[in-house]
Design goal:
Chain A: Keywords: Amino-acid biosynthesis, Aromatic amino acid biosynthesis, Lyase, Tryptophan biosynthesis. The structure holds 2 protein chains of 2 kinds. By secondary structure, chain A is α/β, with parallel strands linked by helices. Chain A has one domain: Aldolase class I (TIM Barrel). Chain A is built from 12 helices and 9 strands. Chain A has a 9-stranded parallel β-sheet. In chain A, helix 2 packs parallel to helix 4, helix 4 packs parallel to helix 6 and helix 11 runs antiparallel to helix 12. Chain B has 2 domains: 136 residues, Rossmann fold (3-Layer(aba) Sandwich), CATH 3.40.50.1100; 219 residues, Rossmann fold (3-Layer(aba) Sandwich), CATH 3.40.50.1100. Chain B has 16 helices and 14 strands. Chain B has a 6-stranded mixed β-sheet with strand order 3-4-14-9-10-13, with helices on both faces. In chain B, strands 1-2-12-11 form a 4-stranded antiparallel β-sheet. The chains are: A alpha/beta, B alpha/beta.
Chain lengths: 280, 407
């Protein structure tokens, strides 16, 4: 498949010799205007890749922070059409920062996979992470997505052993998302040395960049993980910063965008301090 | 459009990938995938192992009280004045419903797989009680996830579970009902994959659960079919069971699927009526196909693919999905699925209680309500077999409230 913004971004960062900061937030949390303002502010604050959550009523793999974000978005009337509108609006001003949509299959399935990937590609989406579509279900969405020129980013976990890794990696593109712990998003922070081992294990099976997430909350953790990975994913911490900035009715305030920008700036400094020797 | 080609047998599914037609499958996070493959292998081995089957059979007899009786409901038959109605008495099982059949099978599987901790979800609490029961019997710690709303509605069952040594975790996410409890159980499982066995209560979820739960529940239909032949010398004309997730129904239906002359009806919870937006739990009559909790099946959902909560007077039918094999049987036309509304179920609950001296579970009352509609129009020589899936003691407070009585 042709090179995507994700491929270009990871190649550029490899040349710079630093890992990517991958940020997650839920589209429409707590309203579309706030999400758009955040999207526009994130690249300057140091986000290299943006994951945008597609809210779903039953987020089975998510912890309390991201569950609550999805509910806030749905309560605010967020729909798939509005999520794609946000990407379209962002793309008018930024043609370089990769956008990855992350979520669950049903809201895509009801639209039809072929129609969805065409619409997403046209809106300026670069990749998809769909939590409840394992490689055994590749014909559902992965194959149509790849055909449409979207990256399909797969999660690998501690339970994905060496025997299963080739199956998981077979149609993966863009990057591999290594879920550093068995658990839901926002759980306990991973142990950096075990992460190093796991990333090395995955790299024996693929040339793709490996990003690590689940449980990364601080600049220090981002630096520690970033020393061993091609990317560091931060989600629950950002979503929690949004939650903490809202007023009692759950509406965005003047503090919402600055709170996220400050956090991402700090995380970005952490990731940049993780400088590691360029791989030989 | 051409009609789909009908299979030679309706009883051979699922295929190797866990599909019944387009329904079923394994739509789960990668963390769970290796576990589910391991579970499938363990189940295949257990199924072929005579020692496993012998132990399950012995427990079913001596612990659960099987075989359950096939009972001619003479009072109800006389009252309705048409086809003869028979009850398969799953209400007489230990713990008061069919749920024990599945729990005994799965607890033996958990032990065989070397797991040391049991988790389960429950709506009305029947499956939670059955899970806590087998966990007590086999010495496993057990955590039951139950929606906070249901914890309040079903206080006696919560106490039972606690007496049996289980931990009951109320789930406040979403609306605090069965689907939210299932989400939370899946989150627990993802976090504790190494030592934990997820004892799913209905014939839904990722493959192989729909198949193995069906297999453990099929004892209902196998017994009923043999008992019918022995007692009446013939098969029934019509088989009826209530469908929430659908485990009692698939267990009853499966052994009859290839009996061409036996009509089969699954009864969905019509709640306040199908015309009421989000006022029912009839996913096959008022929903459309989607993907939730690891399988593709008919779901109550909005146009954007967000899952709706649904409603039924019966907490056990209050689920926005249905087991995938039912979705397939619906599409092939082998089984007809019809709704019964809350008021009809309530009437059946009272009629059965008064004419038979049997207080049925509200779930089972939905099946009886359909028999009440059909029997008068059928010949006195015809036979209707109804799965009386559980006893109704747990429901007396709900019914009392609906009838405006103070208990």
């Amino acid at each position: 498949m042709t090179e995507t913004r994700i491929d270009r971004r990871f190649a550029a960062l490899k040349a710079e010799g630093r890992p990517a900061l991958v940020t997650f937030m839920t589209a429409g949390d707590p309203d579309p205007a706030t999400t758009l303002a955040l999207l526009k502010a994130l690249p300057a604050a140091g986000a290299d890749v943006i994951e945008l959550g597609m809210p779903f009523s039953d987020p089975m793999a998510d912890g309390p922070a991201i569950q609550a974000a999805g509910l806030r978005a749905l309560k605010g009337g967020q729909t798939m059409a509005k999520t794609l509108d946000l990407v379209r609006a962002f793309r008018k001003e930024d043609d370089a920062t990769p956008i990855v949509l992350m979520g669950y299959y049903n809201p895509i399935y009801v639209r039809g996979s072929e129609a969805f990937v065409a619409e997403a590609k046209a809106a300026g989406v670069d990749g998809l992470i769909i939590v409840d579509l394992p490689p055994e279900a590749d014909d559902e969405l992965c194959i149509p997505a790849l055909a449409a020129g979207l990256n399909f980013i797969r999660l690998a976990t501690p339970t994905t052993d060496d025997k299963r890794l080739p199956t998981v990696l077979s149609n993966t593109s863009g990057f591999v998302y290594y879920v550093s712990i068995n658990g839901i998003t926002g759980s306990a922070a991973p142990d950096a040395s075990r992460v190093a081992e796991s990333v090395a294990r995955i790299k024996r099976h693929t040339h793709l960049p490996v990003s690590v997430g689940f449980g990364v909350k601080s600049a220090e953790q981002a630096a520690a993980i970033g020393a061993h990975a091609d990317g560091v994913v931060v989600g629950s911490a950002i979503v929690s910063a949004i939650a903490a900035s809202l007023d009692e009715q759950g509406h965005a305030t003047g503090k919402t965008v600055p709170a996220v920008v400050d956090l991402v700036t700090a995380l970005s400094a952490g990731v940049r301090s993780a400088r590691r020797p360029v791989a030989a | 459009m051409t009609a789909p080609t009908l299979p030679n047998s309706f009883a051979t599914g699922p295929d190797d990938r866990g599909f019944f037609g387009i329904y079923g499958g394994r739509f789960v996070a990668e963390t769970l995938m290796p576990l589910i493959l391991e579970l499938e292998a363990a189940y295949r081995a257990a199924k072929e192992d005579p020692a496993f089957q012998a132990e399950l059979s012995a427990l079913s007899n001596h612990y659960a009280g099987r075989p359950s009786k096939l009972y001619f409901a003479e009072g109800l038959t006389r009252h309705l004045g048409g086809a003869r109605i028979f009850f398969k008495r799953e209400d007489l099982n230990h713990t008061g419903s069919h749920k024990i059949n599945n729990c005994l099978g799965q607890i033996l599987l958990a032990r065989r797989m070397g797991k040391t901790r049991i988790i389960a979800e429950t709506g009305a609490g029947q499956h939670g009680v059955a899970s806590a029961t087998v966990s007590a019997r086999f010495g496993f710690p057990c955590v039951v996830y139950m929606g906070a709303t249901d914890v309040e509605r079903q206080a006696p069952n919560v106490f039972r579970m606690k007496l049996l040594g289980a931990t009951v975790n109320p789930v406040t996410a979403g609306n605090g009902t069965l689907k939210d409890a299932m989400n939370e159980a899946l989150r627990d499982w993802v976090t504790n994959v190494e030592d934990t066995y997820y004892l799913i209560g209905t014939a839904a979820g990722p493959h192989p659960y729909p198949e193995l739960v069906r297999d453990f529940q099929s004892v209902i239909g196998r017994e009923a079919r043999a008992q019918m032949l022995e007692q009446e010398g013939r098969l029934p004309d019509l088989v009826i069971a209530a469908v929430g997730g659908g485990s009692n129904a698939i267990g009853m239906f499966h052994p009859f699927l290839d009996d061409k002359d036996v009509a089969i009806i699954g009864v969905e919870a019509g709640g306040h009526g199908l015309a009421i937006d989000n006022g029912h739990a009839a996913s096959m009559n008022g929903g459309r196909p989607g993907v939730l909790h690891g399988n593709r099946t008919y779901l109550l959902q909005d146009d954007d693919g967000q899952i709706l909560e649904g409603h039924s007077v019966s907490a056990g039918l209050d689920y926005p999905g249905v087991g995938p094999e039912h979705s397939w049987l619906r599409d092939t036309g082998r089984v007809a699925y019809v709704p019964i509304v809350d008021d009809e179920a309530l009437e059946a609950f009272q009629l059965c209680t008064r004419t038979e001296g049997i207080i049925p579970a509200l779930e089972s009352a939905h099946a009886i309500a359909e028999a009440m509609k059909r029997a008068p129009g059928m010949s006195k020589d015809d036979i209707i077999l109804v799965n009386l899936s559980g006893r109704g003691d747990k429901d007396v407070h709900t019914v009392g409230k609906m009838l405006g009585m103070d208990i």
